[in-house]
Design brief:
Radius of gyration: 18 Å
Helix content: 25-40%
Strand content: 15-25%
Number of strands: 4
Strand order of the largest sheet: 1-2-4-3
Shape: globular
Length: 179
């Protein structure tokens, strides 16, 4: 992913790819105006990342942190797809953590964006495997999960593409209200 990011951002000299973690960015203190976490905050060690975000952000009263979460909310055969996800999520639930709200109650607002994508089999499978709800290759159910996703694609795709409705939900708040 980093190689793809680097190739896509080459034309933008102010975009500097870094291979540090969110918990230890190695950025100077009070150097950042805005933090955006794209469907990743649930993977972070919250105690450590909150301290790091507070260290690097310029302190002001603005809404300076956006936590984005992406979800599939419909499309061809969506009900069956959600059943597949729920069935195979069971073995990995112990790895799922930090899915509670990132901000203190009533300290943030949410902005949602809906859009549709049409994906081929490879894009569909890779997208499903990138979800935190999906089994990993070392899980016993991984191959079966992949077979179910491929069968779902074959059942509902049209002209080699599966239509999926997505919702991007952005929680917007101040770094001091992160929990």
């Amino acid at each position: 992913m980093m190689n793809i990011f680097k190739s896509k951002t080459e034309p933008f000299p102010n975009c500097i790819p870094m291979e540090n973690t969110a918990e230890d960015t190695m950025l100077p203190s009070s150097s950042i105006d805005f933090i955006f976490c794209g469907n990743s905050y649930h993977w972070f060690d919250r105690d450590k990342v909150i301290l790091e975000f507070k260290r690097i952000i310029k302190q002001n009263d603005d809404k300076n942190v956006v936590i984005a979460t992406l979800s599939s909310c419909g499309g061809d055969g969506a009900g069956e797809l959600f059943e597949i996800i729920e069935r195979f999520m069971q073995p990995v639930k112990d790895r799922l953590q930090n899915h509670s709200s990132p901000f203190r109650e009533d300290s943030f607002f949410i902005k949602e964006f809906n859009y549709v994508v049409y994906q081929d089999l490879n894009e569909t499978l890779n997208g499903m495997l990138s979800g935190s709800f999906s089994p990993s290759p070392q899980d016993n159910c991984f191959d079966e999960y992949c077979r179910f996703i491929k069968a779902h694609f074959n059942k509902y795709s049209q002209n080699g593409k599966l239509k999926t409705d997505f919702r991007l939900s952005c929680s917007i708040g101040n770094v001091n209200d992160l929990v």
